[in-house]
Amino acid sequence: MATWTIKDSTGRLLPHFVAGSKIAVGRKLLSSRFDVFRFAVSASYRETFERAVLQVLAQNGWQIVRTHARRGGGRRAGR
Question: pTM of the full predicted structure?
Answer without folding.
Answer: 0.77
